[in-house]
Design brief:
Layout (H helix, E strand, L loop, with lengths): L2 E5 L3 H13 L3 E5 L5 H8 L3 E5 L7 H10 L8 E6 L3 H9 L4 E5 L3 H42 L11 E7 L5 E11 L2 E12 L1 H20 L5 H11 L2 H4 L3 E9 L4 E7 L5 E4 L2 E4 L18 E4 L5 E5 L1 H4 L11 H10 L5 H15 L9 E7 L1
Helix pairs in contact: 5-6
Length: 373
């Protein structure tokens, strides 16, 4: 049962409104002046207020402004009662936060129509706010799960030296990455980028992360080509209706070789002797559309070479001039900072992006991994 508070100094008006409302099963509270209204509302907790603009002690507009400024009553729907010639005050009342007005003398049908309409709107707004609040909690929970899965640091290892920038869009996103020790002096680094952002993309990226972890634990003799084929078989597009891209780097210190498999992620940048170049051609298509053949690119590396893996959220980041960051800008950046420690490169890139980007938030997930081999 909805509860309506009537604030009017005229007993006859209160009696009439009370009868109209009670016939339609409303509970009714009454008050005859402007003072003490906040206490009446606090104790009675009405769902809607009918407020006369002409009160004996305080102007009704002042009451309206006071209630609208109070966080506890700001969202309470208030319908003002006005005289037929009181046009200016009707407009001011709406400006001060009233949701509607009823002109005296009023018809019972009009009173009920306006009260019911505003209550429905108020309940709808409350439902939407609760849904948004629940969604925010779900997003924050998903973000917590996702961030718990990416490494915070890589303790107890001297090579490779790794640093990264990881910035999901809208708190959760489709990017996820990890560093895994394979044994036999082999290390694995990967980036997964699920198309889109939000909870769906985040949950699928978490599923891929879990799949990779389980696959490596159950295949002690890890083969990158076989892994890519198995990933393709388990994440078909028609099952999830989201595109998955991935780049996987295996660093073999026993043979001084790197092995690279790339399905749809931007081509990594490799620096040797101060010269930056793209590596990993040709790379394969997206995961899940029956085009992954398990192609692996292998090459020797020397101590001190650097390699950079990154998702397309970085190169497609919009700047203040509406252009995108772009591949060539990134390549130039890492080449100019090639002599720096990888942690410094990441920090300098982060500062660069803060000044470059158009919006305060990242439009897409950004992952950038700097590796000193």
């Amino acid at each position: 049962m909805s509860k309506v508070l009537i604030i009017d100094d005229d007993p006859s008006v209160r009696i009439l409104l009370k009868k109209i409302l009670q016939r339609s099963s409303f509970a009714v509270l009454e008050h005859d002046r402007g003072t003490g209204i906040e206490n009446v509302i606090s104790n009675g907790k009405p769902d809607l207020v009918l407020l006369d603009l002409i009160l004996p002690d305080i102007n009704g507009l002042h009451v309206l402004r006071t209630l609208n400024k109070n966080p506890d009553t700001k969202n309470l729907p208030i319908i003002v009662l006005t005289g037929s010639s009181d046009k200016d005050n009707r407009i001011k009342a709406l400006q001060y936060g009233a949701v509607d007005y009823i002109t005296k003398p009023f018809l019972p049908e009009e009173v009920l129509l306006r009260v019911n309409t505003q209550l429905k709107m108020h309940n709808l707004i409350n439902s939407l706010q609760e849904a948004v609040s629940d969604l925010k909690m779900d997003i924050e929970a998903a973000a917590g799960i996702q961030r718990a899965l990416v490494p915070v640091s890589i303790p107890g290892q001297t090579k490779p030296e790794i640093s990264w920038l990881y910035e999901p869009s809208y708190k959760v996103g489709g990017d996820i990455f990890d560093y895994i020790e394979l044994g036999d002096e082999r290390k694995l680094v990967y980036i997964v980028d699920v198309a889109g952002h939000g909870v769906n993309a985040s949950m699928l990226s978490v599923m891929v992360h879990r799949f990779i972890e389980d696959y490596i634990n159950s295949h002690l003799s890890f083969d990158l080509s076989d892994f890519m084929k198995e990933l393709e078989a388990n994440f078909k597009f028609e099952r999830f209706e989201l595109f998955i891209t991935i780049v996987v780097l295996v660093i073999d210190y026993g043979r001084n070789k790197i092995h690279l498999a790339n399905a749809g992620v931007p081509v990594p940048i490799f620096i040797r002797n101060g010269v930056a170049k793209y590596i990993g051609f040709p790379h394969e298509s997206l995961v899940g559309i029956d085009l992954i053949k398990g192609e692996v690119n292998s090459m020797d590396f020397d101590e001190g070479d650097k390699i950079f893996l990154y998702s397309d959220g970085l190169t497609e980041l919009r700047g203040k001039n509406d252009g995108t960051f772009g591949d060539s800008r990134l390549k130039k950046f890492v080449e100019e900072h090639r002599s720096n420690h990888v942690e410094d490169i990441v920090e300098e890139l982060k500062d660069y992006l803060e000044n470059y980007r158009k919006h305060e938030y990242y439009e897409d997930d950004i992952t950038f991994i700097a590796i000193n081999l």
